[in-house]
TrEMBL record:
<protein>
    <submittedName>
        <fullName>DUF5522 domain-containing protein</fullName>
    </submittedName>
</protein>
<dbReference type="InterPro" id="IPR040807">
    <property type="entry name" value="DUF5522"/>
</dbReference>
<dbReference type="Pfam" id="PF17653">
    <property type="entry name" value="DUF5522"/>
</dbReference>
Length: 121
């Protein structure tokens, strides 16, 4: 059963669909890491504003990570998602996927491949 609602973004005031849209009864926003509470900033955000808010929150957190505290970071304890999100987990450079620090933090260990954004080195 589809229980989508039309909402107005509290960030940009655009109209968007929110709610259960898949067989698993999950909203599109469930693919993003649960890293902040929207009750602090209002109602739901549209996909564009939500992604930007996640990127900002993650970037601010990543700046606090050092090799010394990387192995005990909060990303490891978040629920695992199978979906990689461009701009959050990786970016594309010359046709190649480059994993960002957040991706490495979620994995929880160094793969010893000298990754560009490895927080553990």
């Amino acid at each position: 059963m589809n229980s989508q609602k039309t909402k107005i973004c509290s960030g940009c005031e655009s109209e968007f669909s929110c709610g259960d849209i898949s067989v698993e009864n999950k909203c599109w926003c469930n693919n993003y890491p649960p890293i902040f509470n929207l009750s602090d900033g209002g109602d739901c955000l549209c996909p564009v504003c939500f992604k930007e808010a996640c990127e900002d929150k993650i970037d601010a957190y990543v700046e606090t990570v050092t090799p010394k505290n990387a192995y005990k970071n909060k990303a490891i304890s978040l629920p695992k998602t199978e979906t990689l999100i461009e701009g959050i987990d990786y970016y594309i450079e010359n046709g190649n996927m480059v994993f960002k620090t957040w991706f490495h933090l979620k994995r929880g260990t160094c793969c010893e491949n000298s990754c560009r954004h490895c927080p553990y080195k």
